[in-house]
Amino acid sequence: MTRLVLEAKGLAREYGPVVAVDDVNLSLGEGEFLTVFGPNGAGKSSLLGMLGGAMRPTRGHVLIRGQRLAYSDVEWRHQVGILSHRGFLYGQLTVEENLRFYGRLFGLTDLDQRIPERLERVGLADRIRFQVRQLSHGMRQRLSLARALLHDPDVILLDEPYTGLDPSAAGVLRGVLAGLRDGRRTVVMVTHNLKEGLELATRVAIQVSGRFAWEGTQADVGGEAFERHYHRVVEGRS
Fold it and tell me: Per-residue pLDDT for 3 more than 90?
C-alpha cells in the first residue's frame, strides 16, 4: 500500500472578497505526480503556496506524512522543495555559491558531495563556476530544480516550470522532471502546458474558480481528447 505523504483538507484562501482557493481536498502518496491545470485566475499558484507553507490558508490545513503543517515550526521546510519560474537565485553568485548558500540554510554538512551530484543530475556539472547571470533561462530553471532537490525533500512543488522556455529547453527540463518519478517523491505541478503536464502526471486535476472541477488518473486522459475535455470543463460544460 502506498504511504500517504501530502494531504490538504478543506483548503481555502481568500483575498478580501475574492476567493482564490475554495475547499480543495487532496491526498497523495509516495511516487504520485499530480498535475493541476486551469486558466489564469483559477487559484493554482495560491494552492501551491499553501501546500508549500509560503501562504497561510484562510481555512483548512495541510499535512505532510500525517503531521499538520505548523508555520511556527520551520522543520517541515526540510520536507518540501519548491521550483518556481521566479527561480530564487542570485545572479552575481556562481552556480556553486548559490547552492552552498541554500545548503547552509538547511544545515547541510555534506555539500562537497551533494552539490556535484545535484548538478550532474540536472546536466549542469560543467557550469559550476559560472555566474548565474551568465546562464540561459532554461539552465537557470534546471539550477533552480537542483536547489529544490538539494536537501532531498519528500515533496516537490513545481509552479509553472515551463514558463518562458523554448521547445529545446522545455524538452531538457522535461527529461529532468521525469526523473522525479522515482517511486519515492511526491510531486505537485501547476501548469498551463497541457502536453508537458500530461506526459509526467499519474494524476490530473482541473482547477476552475478555486475548486477542483475535475480529477482523474493518467488512464482517464489522453492527448487531444483531454484537450477537448479540458476546455469543456473550464467552460462549464459536461
Answer: no
